[in-house]
Design a protein that fits this description.
5 strands; 174 residues; alpha/beta; elongated; five-stranded parallel β-sheet; single chain
């Protein structure tokens, strides 16, 4: 994927060893530039959503360091409330279908199980999310260009109408 601006990714996991490995893997996964920030709690991530990232990789269980920490589902709901266009990829060691379905229902882009294939699966999911973001940005640009073109032509019609109204001799065709 080629974009004019770097892909912004937040990694949220309370397992420091995993999050360090994940950050290294994500950097190696892609040839395009990425801005990666890591957070050990959902609360830290939420505090940094003033400039929302393109993608958030969010662990389901976030309370190993603090029993009162928000879990991934609560953080996901808050992210979707604040920035519904952000692609949130949920991570968990659980392979329960009902957990995955519930997370998708609340706005998760995808659900990845932490197993031996986690990094391969994340590469695929992040690539898909990045491509989806690129297409959405291009579509937004095309819509903007369309609005500008419509505005230009509408302005020209208005100007021609005013000229015709006040200066009818300008449009005399022989």
């Amino acid at each position: 994927m080629k974009t004019s601006e770097p892909l912004s990714i937040y990694l949220v996991d309370d397992d420091q060893l995993f999050i360090t490995s994940l950050k290294d893997q994500v950097k190696k996964m892609f040839k395009f530039e990425t801005n990666i920030q890591t957070f050990s709690t959902g609360e830290e991530c939420l505090k940094n959503l003033k400039n929302p990232p393109d993608i958030i990789i969010l662990d389901y269980f976030l309370n190993s360091n603090s029993p009162n920490a928000m879990d991934g589902l609560k953080v996901l709901k808050k992210i979707m409330e604040l920035n519904p266009e952000t692609k949130v990829i949920m991570l968990s060691a659980q392979d329960k279908m009902e957990v995955a379905v519930n997370l998708i229902k609340f706005g998760a882009y995808d659900y990845v199980i932490k197993n031996d294939n986690v990094f391969n699966r994340l590469k695929l999911v992040i690539s898909n999310a990045a491509n989806s973001i690129k297409v959405a940005k291009e579509l937004k640009n095309y819509k903007l260009m369309g609005k500008i073109a419509v505005g230009f032509f509408a302005g020209m019609i208005i100007i021609c109408s005013i000229v015709q109204l006040f200066f009818p001799e300008v449009f005399i065709i022989d």
